[in-house]
Amino acid sequence: MCSVLKITALGVGGWVSHPSFGQSGYVVSDGKRNVLLDCGEGTYYKLSACGINIKNLDYIILTHIHGDHVLGLPTLAQIAAHENLSLKVVTLEEVFKNIVKLFEVLAIEKYLNHISFMELPLNDELVLEDDLIVKSFKALHPVLATSLLIRIGEYRVAYSGDTAVNKDFLLASEGVDVLLHEVSLPELYDSLKIRIGHTSEKDLKDIVNIAKPKTFIPVHFYMEPPKVRLDNYLKNTKLVYLLPCSSVVIE
Ligand SMILES: [Zn+2]
């Protein structure tokens, strides 16, 4: 049977970004499973606006504790309680400990009962289902963060989360069907990228040349999307820009 992979963006911006971009959230679906990658502010609204029912989310994978990646979770947990659901949240143990603290500060710790935590080991794999496997790579970011390589059905999807250029992750991702990679900074701010653990427009060439993805989706924009040169280095890679609620389907 021929399957398809669908990636839907809920938000493609970072914490400081153009308001129309929204904050991090990507739904990866192979028709059997819907996996939400990160859960930035406004995720519940964006799911509703994009026609995705919270009941149909099988897993939520969080890359790190920064707010533009997790601040949608408190609302999702309360909606899950309202709908009598349990959300499967996959993340590093330390990230989940901080989620618990966040719920305590917000005085909503009782809604943790509607979260089923699944520990993602650092620099190792977690088998969620026979054909749904997540591998984490320690990201180059000021807080503990992971990049992800996901096998879902017959597809491989790589997601950088927030990181400066990480060759280990990109080499492991070589030839993936889809690479979602952050390009947070315009070239103007390139000198900041190592200190703040992000990637700039200047890095695009290296990212694509090392990982050689079939489809490349730049994400986590600052005030405007990165400027991408359509010359040699993207010859064998399809470039796709997603905006909130838009999808790309890969056959
Ligand atoms: Zn971050």
Describe the 3D structure:
The protein is built from seven helices and 14 strands. The protein has 251 residues and is an alpha/beta fold. The chain has one domain (5-245): 4-Layer Sandwich (Metallo-beta-lactamase, Chain A). The strands form two sheets. The chain has a seven-stranded mixed beta sheet. Helix 5 (167-172) links the parallel strand 10 (155-159) and strand 11. The longest helix has 13 residues, at 93-105. The mean pLDDT is 95. The structure holds zinc ion.
The CATH H-level superfamily is Ribonuclease Z/Hydroxyacylglutathione hydrolase-like
Order of helices and strands: EEEHEHHEHEEEEEHEHHEEE
Strand order of the largest sheet: 6-5-4-3-2-1-14
Q: Give the cofactors and ligands.
A: zinc ion
Shape: globular
When the domains are counted, the total is: 1
Which key features would you list for this structure?
251 residues; seven-stranded mixed β-sheet; 7 helices; 14 strands; globular; binds zinc ion
Write a brief caption for the model.
With 251 residues, the chain is of the alpha/beta class. The chain is built from seven helices and 14 strands.
